[in-house]
Amino acid sequence: RAVLRTLAATPAAMPLIGFPHVARAAEFELKYGNNLPLSHPLNIRAQEAAERVARESKGRVEIKIFPNNQLGGDTDMLSQVRNGGITFFTPSALVIATLVPVAAINAVGFAFSDYDQVWKAMDGKLGAHVREAIAKVNLFAFEKMWDNGFRQMTTSGRPIEQAKDMAGLKIRVPVSPLSISMFKALDAAPASLQFSEVYTALQTRVVDAQENPLPIIQVAKLFEVQKSCAISNHIWDGFWFIANGRAWRGLPADLQKIVADAINDAGVKQRADIKALNETVQADLQSKGLSFNKTDPDSFRAKLRSAGFYKEWQERFGNEAWSLLEDAVGKLA
Ligand code: X2X
Predict the structure, then answer these.
(1) Rounded to whole angstroms, how far apart are CA atoms 142 and 241?
(2) Nearest to residue 156, comparing CAs of 223, 221, 89?
(3) ipTM score here?
(4) To test ligand 1's pocket by mutation, which of 90, 95, 192 has the most ligand atoms within 8 angstroms of CB?
């Protein structure tokens, strides 16, 4: 009644001031966690996708992004997406492989030699094979992988040029059985640490080396605690954008389409961002004091072969997945 009196007393000429806009809570509030700094293309494109989903769903779906390990490390977020604590997570293939072993197949040492091979395989049969395996543990993997990049090795001491330089090297690797296996086969001394711990571990010399794509080295400022970088391209690594299976199935089909289209389109744009970044990132890192050297990939492949690395992982992944990989990259074992 009071409101009506106010309205009645309001001169028609005065624009009616809208009632304070109360933002309706979204019908679906979805949490997305990742392990990368805000400035990485993964977060920039994820933010765009979240805005597109809110717009196209007319506010029915809100994706809240928690970047840079705000929700905990990879291991924590992997268990959260499994139990539904969060809806989305973007683990590296190396990391989700702790749950879905075959997911590490794209990370077999020195398998991929360029991005044409990578996307033909991961957008094709090999990627489909891995997505099926991810579905079996009640997670949903979106069709398009996001790009982490070709991994390079950095050290605080002498540069790495060939396989023999790896002997005894205390190198940090992700929480990944394949990474441990590969660097042990190279006679290094690998230590698995979550990405959130890497900078400090290098700074305090708990480890003397690490390996990551150059954009990661840049955004995580690892050049501040490392001296040299060997361009080894020893692993191509990608992020699977995954959803909790139950939460994903709980979205109506029209909203699933809006979310999937936005996330897949964002993933393809993020790939282009990394490609563009790769043109400039080495010069930027050099300007920040990181020295670079080439390596002899054949010496590393020969060492992995003689250590039985390829044979071991062919058995562990199974012949079907291994054949899909070799169809894409040629004979490895
Ligand atoms: O932990 C790493 O090295 C990173 C950031 O590349 C992954 O997410 C695997």
Answers:
(1) 6
(2) 223
(3) 0.98
(4) 95
Residues across the chain: 333
Q: Which of 200, 203, 197, 179 is nearest to 189 (CA)?
A: 179
Q: Which residues line ligand 1 (CB under 6 A)?
A: 35, 92, 94-95, 148, 174, 195, 212, 216, 237
pTM over 0.95: no
* 31 Cα–ligand 1 center, Å: 20
What lies within 8 Å, CB to CB, of 15 at 6+ separation is none
Q: Which two structure tokens, joined as six digits, stand for 56?
A: 């196209």
pLDDT, one tens digit per residue, over 183-214 is: 999 999 999 999 999 999 999 999 999 999 99
> How far away, in angstroms, is 212 Cα from ligand 1 center?
7
